[in-house]
Amino acid sequence: MKHTFWRHCLSAFLLTLVATGASAQQPVEGTSYYLPRTELQFTFLVEQTVYTPGDFAIYAQRYMKRNDVKMQGETNFRIIDVKMTPVAVPDSTKHFSLLMDKKYSLYNVARADNGLLLAINAEPMQLQQLPEPFKPAPKAKALNPRDFLNEDILTAGSTAKMAELTAQEIYEIRESRNLLQRGKAEFMPQDAAQLRMMLDGMDRQERALLQLFEGTTVRDTTEVTLTFNPQPGSEHELFFRFSRWFGFVDNDDLGGSPYFISLTEEQIPTSDAAAADDKKLKDDISLYVNIPGRVKVTLLNGNIPMFTNTLYMGQYGIIENLSGALFGKKITSNLVLNPITGGVERITEEQLGK
Q1: pTM score
Q2: Which residues 6+ apart lie within 8 Å of 198 measured at CB?
């Protein structure tokens, strides 16, 4: 019983070693691997605009001759940019085990950490780097209009009086600025630098006081990433809904405008080897590669195209079984696969020494 127990423990330990070594590049007998399918990672830049009415908004027409000032606050969203990045993930329907027989020269099998086959007897292509996350530019500190109100305005007995005095202050600032620019001010600065400083201070003060009538508009840009999994046979799918008032919403929220993904396979691959699937492949070592299909991807806002790109995808097209004869004892092959599509990127011969 003890011997049986230790044999089971040893078998379990060896199986664990094989499993944990799956991401290494050293070949083992029956090396398992996946071929990829292509997912589409869409990155959206969304601008949020928040308008807040000023304290004196109802007096904007009377004192500032502005009849376009909104009395109610609102928040709007809009998509200002979209980018698409293809990403390879293991295709669970394309999981194979490469036969590592001594009669074949398979001395280096390179796989990604997720099990995707990358190369045999060669250095794999560099894995694609995802785009850097969006970093918004630093924003200037917002002006506080209350910091620029004089004593007369702050002690006024009503909002209407405060608005009137604030308007007078704005007009006095404009008059003083015009006098400085014309060189007719009672106290002129000594040099151009001092003049610029005084003018900038007046501009800042006017902008702050005008906020009390016009309100404030604050814009922020954020990045949103959505992933789409294209499936052969699906030509037109609802991707997401987007609301002008709330941004991205649930797909069943009819308050958002629908955005669709249109998929058109432009190039359907063919293979003589695939057509002769009734014949047993000589030197079959279960080495499969994708022959990807070329697909046109269009993102539509309703019926209006807003983004189009054409690329190859592993789940479209077909797969092909490569013969183990490519990896002989005298002449072997260096095989490099495209890490996104799983198609053959490069295959070259290598003469082996005696």
Answers
A1: 0.78
A2: 180, 189
